[in-house]
């Protein structure tokens, strides 16, 4: 880090440290302790105006971010992960995160002019064909068990052991869909890996929809739940910096040399990413770590994320994000920071 001084109006200039090399750099002020992520231009490195930057509190040190250079990245808030019609609890961590997004984070981002990116699973047949076994295993696979003189096709077992109990007890229904038997003998819907048919799902008012193939593009299961879908469609109507939907084909949306997401961020000059969605320790955490490795500023929106994993999994991601990968804040912090910018105008 290079030591440097900057004058703020008529006050005594505080010490400011240049971190990194322009144009990808931060400034650190010791009084008050603040990280400036707005990337002010050399050689002056002028402090950003409170009228055009957001002072955001975090669980370590405060930061300054530039709305035009920032994006709220909402990951995998899709029916497959959230819908109660697929057995997801209405009061589960994912749906609670969705409520925080709808009530606080999305409105705050809109007021500030922060771009919103909906980064979601959306597979093609070609991507399924090229999918590595490690990713296939995470979402289940169709196993074949050989027994005395015959073969039986078993339900998928995912990375969390879902359908494990069904591996020895299953039946073929009239539509040819494998279904797990519960203790009371009623079939329970299962899935057999990425791209497999989920089948019909009964939603409100007894209506039935075809859920489609698992996490494939343009299917019901890969769509947003109604309230979030309405927020996305409202964002598409914004004339300047409308919401963007980007497909991903791995747990991380920023893996490898380039993805549609990384290409979009580079094209738009976005340097600061606020991460939200599900699951904190999987797709959100994986995307955040790849973004960190590639040089983006990473901010985890603690209460706008959720996971089905034990609490220690989220604790680990939050701990490392706060101390290594970036910063951790929450929806109220974003709302307060945005309001402070608006009040200064």
Q: Which fold does the CATH topology of the largest domain refer to? A: Rossmann fold
Annotation, overall tally of beta strands: 19
CATH superfamily of the largest domain: Isochorismatase-like
Name of the level-1 CATH class of the largest domain: Alpha Beta
Strand content: 25-35%
The general outline is globular
Describe the main β-sheet briefly: 6 strands, mixed
Q: Helical residue percent?
A: 25-40%
Question: Would you tell me the overall average pLDDT?
Answer: 85
Instruction: Enumerate the spans where pLDDT stays under 50 for 5 or more consecutive residues.
Output: 1-13, 143-190
Domain Isochorismatase-like: 241-312
Protein name: Isochorismatase-like domain-containing protein
InterPro entries: Isochorismatase-like_dom (IPR000868), Isochorismatase-like_hydrls (IPR050272), Isochorismatase-like_sf (IPR036380)
Organism: Lepraria neglecta
Describe this structure as you would to a colleague.
Helices cover 28% and strands 27% of the residues. A hairpin with a 5-residue loop joins strand 11 and strand 12. The chain has helices at 79-82, 93-112, 125-129, 133-138, 226-236, 260-268, 280-293, 311-325, 331-344, and strands at 2-5, 15-21, 24-30, 33-36, 54-56, 63-65, 70-75, 115-121, 143-147, 150-154, 170-172, 178-181, 187-189, 200-202, 208-210, 244-248, 272-278, 297-306, 327-329. The protein is α/β, with parallel strands linked by helices and 345 residues long. Mean pLDDT is 85; it is low at 1-13 and 143-190. It contains 9 helices and 19 strands. The strands form 5 sheets. A 6-stranded mixed β-sheet has the order 1-2-3-4-6-5. The chain has a 6-stranded parallel β-sheet with strand order 16-8-7-17-18-19, sandwiched between helices. It is globular and about 60 Å long. The protein has 3 domains: 2-47, no CATH class; 67-122 and 222-328, Isochorismatase-like (Rossmann fold, 3-Layer(aba) Sandwich); 133-210, no CATH class. Residues 1-23 are annotated as: Disordered. It comes from Lepraria neglecta.
